[in-house]
Amino acid sequence: xxxxxxxxxxxxxxxxxxxxxxxxxxxxxxxxxxxxxxxxxxxxxxxxxxxxxxxxxxxxxxxxxxxxxxxxxxxxxxxxxxxxxxxxxxxxxxxxxxxxxxxxxxxxxxxxxxxxxxxxxxxxxxxxxxxxxxxxxxxxxxxxxxxxxxxxxxxxxxxxxxxxxxxxxxxxxxxxxxxxxxxxxxxxxxxxxxxxxxxxxxxxxxxxxxxxxxxxxxxxxxxxxxxxxxxxxxxxxxxxxxxxxxxxxxxxxxxxxxxxxxxxxxxxxxxxxxxxxxxxxxxxxxxxxxxxxxxxxxxxxxxxxxxxxxxxxxxxxxxxxxxxxxxxxxxxxxxxxxxxxxxxxxxxxxxxxxxxxxxxxxxxxxxxxxxxxxxxxxxxxxxxxxxxxxxxxxxxxxxxxxxxxxxxxxxxxxxxxxxxxxxxxxxxxxxxxxxxxxxxxxxxxxxxxxxxxxxxxxxxxxxxxxxxxxxxxxxxxxxxxxxxxxxxxxxxxxxxxxxxxx
Amino acid sequence: xxxxxxxxxxxxxxxxxxxxxxxxxxxxxxxxxxxxxxxxxxxxxxxxxxxxxxxxxxxxxxxxxxxxxxxxxxxxxxxxxxxxxxxxxxxxxxxxxxxxxxxxxxxxxxxxxxxxxxxxxxxxxxxxxxxxxxxxxxxxxxxxxxxxxxxxxxxxxxxxxxxxxxxxxxxxxxxxxxxxx
Lengths: 502, 181
Hints:
The complex is a heterodimer of chains A (about 500) and B (about 180).
Chain A: E1 4-5, E2 25-27, E3 35-36, H1 53-60, H2 63-76, H3 82-105, H4 109-116, H5 118-132, H6 137-149, H7 153-170, H8 174-200, H9 203-211, H10 229-237, H11 245-255, H12 291-333, H13 336-343, H14 346-359, H15 363-399, H16 408-429, H17 439-463, H18 473-497
Antiparallel strand pairs in A: 1-2, 2-3
Helix pairs in contact in A: 1-8, 1-11, 1-12, 1-15, 2-10, 2-12, 3-11, 3-12, 3-17, 3-18, 4-5, 4-17, 5-15, 5-17, 6-7, 6-14, 6-15, 7-15, 7-16, 8-12, 8-15, 9-12, 10-18, 11-15, 12-14, 13-14, 14-15, 15-16, 17-18
Chain B: H1 3-33, H2 38-64, H3 74-100, H4 109-142, H5 147-180
């Protein structure tokens, strides 16, 4: 490990508390403040049920799984799902690599990007604002809730926004509250999805859904058209967490105390901001020359790999297989639903899928289906608002002059209430998804950010981490493939068909 | 078996029983909100909710007997791979009898059971996920009058202690870095 001390290195001195008269060892990463060497905490048992991945699952299991992929299966057959398998598997590897930097340093990937090249971080800061301040993601869930209860969706959406703000402002430690709430919501979602899929689906549905995932290379000629290729690109981008959600995961990982995140205090709600410990101005590194520390690191990697494989990959797959089975059953029971789904009107398609269950005699299932959509909308809103505010607060605190006069919790509250206030104004007076003139740009930026974070990951993990904990060549190849995959398809769609993503 | 013993086992079974009932009534409850006929929703909820609740309760009792351990998925996954298809078979039989007058399945029995067994993995994940959050709090409430609950709670406490030690270690590390930085 190429560390240095200030002013002189003490080779093989153990990391840990430093007596005041002794200079401490540091790890230089880029031109920003070096990271002091500290002890890596012991890793928890690798087999566990709950952890920060709950956020990725909550954010990731959304419209892609419940609507976009079932729609593609109805249009092109189950064989199109090989692209979903690639998309989600790629996201699982991205998740592991995001975790590598966050657990090794206690810094977010945004901080890592700033260490490589500060404008790279500001690019993500601006993209987050442009893409995520629009409250459009609320509309599907709130509309589904209106279908069930009759309460106008605008009221539900506005009340929901204020409730989210109050909830996060009153929480003592936001991470703990959110983990508890999302865990119950996701548990309920998983149980309900399984029950409904079990009632409406058949062995044949699930066999074709799963076998379709291995039809590598299948791409019917209609899929390569201006009408459908952009939709496929959008669906791949929405397989699992989309846009910047993977980057925000590094903040949740840090707040959960994973790896060197243990040295960073947790973000608190506005009401308890006064109790927050001072936030250090940079992260920390552990002694990668010490075999005992490296053994602990391997424990942390096992822990996060379990998260990536079982919790993230497994649950995302399970939910999307269930929803595809549900959509196939809907189309079988009511062939008209296929036309509505094909037309691309999202809410009409969701209602048609719900109605087809009701008309087939399974009267309860229409409402249950809409209940899912409302639940998914609630998960996404809770997760998105928290993550957006957390990410922007982190970048502002560390890189805007004078921001350190405030606490991280104050900045978090500013961004949270800012996005809520703006959201309510837009819901009442403006276009929820954003002005129609820039919709294409927003869709482009969201997918572009995914290619960009793959490049950022390669740079950060290979240049800012000590050699013993850098990614292996095969991991770099997969992340490199991810960058080519997202950016290549995005630009192919743009230049070949003149359309961004659908 | 004495009434006292039944009470103790019943208390252990309650969290899993409640999750099973909830899984069954999610469909029924929403159908009422949506204005569907109450009778159909109720029959469907009972036919599915009751067997799931019984199996959910049995899971809690078997946990009390230390056959299942807190936080471990594989045995629970296997358990639901059997229990879930049986529950669905009950549900399908009852509802089809109510609708058509005779028990019917959409596909042949083997394919039906195989499909349900596959879907059961999803149910098992959701069940364990919720059970792990609800049970420790419930055991704390009943432990005073229930030795089995006390023993099971001790297992949870042991598990929590390992996690707590890890957390304390991290907290100490943070305090040290704060002092040094």
